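Rotation project, supervised by the postdoc (A.L.). Task for the rotation student: set up a whole-complex structure prediction and record inputs and outputs verbatim in this book. Inputs entered:
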Amino acid sequence: MKIAVVGTGYVGLVTGTCFAETGNTVTCVDIDQEKVKKLQNGKITIYEPGLEQLFERNLKQGRLAFTTNLKEGIEGAQIIFLALPTPPGEDGSADLKYILKVADDLGPLLKDFTVIVDKSTVPVGTADKVRERVAKGAKVEFDVVSNPEFLREGVAVEDFMKPDRVVIGTNSARGRKVMEQLYQPFVRQGNPIIFMDERSAELTKYAANAFLATKISFMNEIANLCESVGADVDSVRKGVGTDSRIGKRFLFPGIGYGGSCFPKDVQALAKSSSDVQYDFKILKAVMDVNADQKTRLIPRVKEYFNNNLKGKTIAVWGLSFKPHTDDIREAPALYNIDLLLEAGATVKVHDPEGMENVKKLVGSKIQYCETPYEAAEGADAVFIATEWPEFRTPDFEKLSSLLKAKVIFDGRNLYDLSVMKELGYAYYSIGREVVH
Ligand code: NAD
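Outputs recorded:
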């Protein structure tokens, strides 16, 4: 099939590349000229494990192309995916300006029956709005289908190639048939394509993200309670996670969730609910808990240094909002860095993939280091913000020799308490005993 993907960010580039990988001819469109130029020159624009190889192969074999020109990009396409941003507006609702602008532009450009697919995370009713806007300029028939994306950054290619499920919202038999055909290679192992109406599909995406965010915030509250009552969250986690109704995943406490999806999607769902006079109480609590949790270790840091961080150097390990991505949107690390700087500390950072993006945002207020050890050299403490695998088993002997004092504030519970005790570290983590 010939496919166009409008918006070539984290979702668009993975979507386009993976559809090309299954033999389709894909053109990705983006308004960011620099991004498109890079991609046309064979340079990948995001870090996502496994993506580069697929990107290079499909580019070389002529199944993947990039353009800034919408008309050129959709020429001959049977399916047009919208993988555009839906950032939070001032009131917390998803801002649809990018989607609706492209919908306006698409109408007059359609030459034949086309299926237009919302892949962005959009509030209930967006498919209707897109249909209305396209219809204004269109002279041919078209369908609008909702196909929310569930990929996780860091394992996006795997998630896209072997999805747990594909959700497709459409009431059109024609649209359904085209989508079924397109996704067949991705569900060969028997995972389902779940068809439903558009509104339910739109809500499914928000329900999934809000549920996962709730699971995280719930476990973070249990961890906080553990600290107050002298329980150990690792034991509690294992004790509850083995219940098959609860499951082991998404139960690890830490300094909160971040990223481009959970924060904005929980907020948008809360706003959509209040727009229809539904008071979604749990979501408010989830947002409150996460707002506090992100910087939960900062009072500990201040207390440790007798409320005086002036002249202290903190090595921050991890900047991206989670491991295996260079995405720093809403990353808890950034909130903590701000507070450390505000308190007068010097901050040295290391992240395997996120440093370039942080440099663009934060600039020279912090020092960027090539390795975690370089960041630790001469520092008064290490602060762990992201659970990159390379931080899990550092050379503690080397680390101890580089640090001014053996102190770790661990926002991701990477180390065994017994190991920290043995090594003589002061060790603060989440929901567990403090090691002095
Ligand atoms: P992104 O910001 O990485 O990419 C969006 C791209 O759209 C950018 O490259 C931007 O330049 C481009 N764009 C903006 N206006 C355009 C226009 N008029 N024409 C062409 N291109 C235009 O965003 P993303 O992370 O890929 O997210 C896209 C959507 O997918 C959002 O709704 C998001 O909530 C959803 N989503 C994201 C993830 C994720 O993990 N990132 C997962 C599932 C769903």
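Student's summary: The two ends are 62 Å apart (CA to CA).
Supervisor addendum: The pocket of nicotinamide-adenine-dinucleotide is lined by residues 6-12, 29-32, 35, 83-86, 98, 101-102, 120-121, 149, 151, 153, 260-261 (CB under 6 Å).
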